Amino acid sequence: MVKRCGSRSKGKTAFDFDPIQLAIGAEIELEHTCDRKVAERIAMDHLVESPDYYRELVKMEERLERKKQAVIASRKPAEPRGKASQLSPTRIAAKRRS
Asked: How far, in Å, CA of 71 to CA of 74, rounded?
């Protein structure tokens, strides 16, 4: 059985939730719908599950982004191969100056 949007938060209103968490949640849920009321209802469903749902989601996304950036920073740039990827004389001169 598929749960319908708003089924977990049935009987609740926006006033039953932390307004900051609800606003953050509604913005995030707009990724899934263009209807702000539906986004708010989805957010309310998640906040019924956990009052810190969006605070934790944002923290997790920030951790993943830091991890991703660390992996990118740890990679060496690819070595140029073939004539098409060789440095131009202008770029060689600029590299020497730096």
From this structure: 5
